[in-house]
Amino acid sequence: MGVRSELDANFDFEIVDEFLDHFSLMVDSMEIMILDLSKPNMFEQSINELFRIFHSLKSATSFLKLERISLLAHFVEDVLESARKKDKATDELIDWLFLASGQLNKWYNEITQNKELSPINGKLLKIPKGY
Q1: Distance (Å, rounded) from C-alpha 35 to C-alpha 55?
Q2: What global pTM score does this model have?
C-alpha cells in the first residue's frame, strides 16, 4: 500500500488533499527563498519564512504520522533556528537547504504517485559547518 492510500484510509479525504496542496506550495516556494539567502537585504526575511515553512511542515506531517518527513522537517528547523542568529548564509548552508528541498519534492511526488517514501538522502545528515 502506498503512502497516499494509507493517508486516505486513516484521515478524512479533505484533510489529506489540503495537506498535499499546502505541501506542494511549500516545496515550490522554497527555491526562491533559499536563493534569496545569499542576498544581504533578503536574508532575514527568507530565513524566517523558511523556518516557518519547516515548522508548519513538521506539525502537519507529525499529525498525519508521516514520521520520515516530520523528522527531516524538525532537523532542518533546528538548523534554521541556528541560522537565524547569523547575519548571512554560507554557500554550504544554501546547498544543504537545496538538498532538503529536493528531498521534500521527491517525497511529495512519491505520495501523489501512491508510492512508499524513499530513504532520506544521506548527505542531509551532515549539518553545514557553523550551524
Answers
A1: 19
A2: 0.94
